[in-house]
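User: Show me a protein chain along with its predicted structure.
Assistant: Here is one chain, sequence first, then structure tokens.
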Amino acid sequence: MLMPPALLDGLDPQEVAEEQTAAATAVNEEDRIGLEAVQRAVGSRFAGRGHLSPKEPGVQLFYRALAEALVQEGTPGRE
């Protein structure tokens, strides 16, 4: 993890590295468990086909807003 050198003053760099590694490992393990569950669900015959789940409206909204902004940006006379 990157941090300003002043934050390490008086600390053992090896100990800081070990703590950061342990924290990253814990987060990655949580992510792995969640992603494996998603992969199992995707294989279900009840899972619908498509790019996005109906439970992901925020992602769809973002891409729609992005597309609209790009279209407006490329069209003369539109703001």
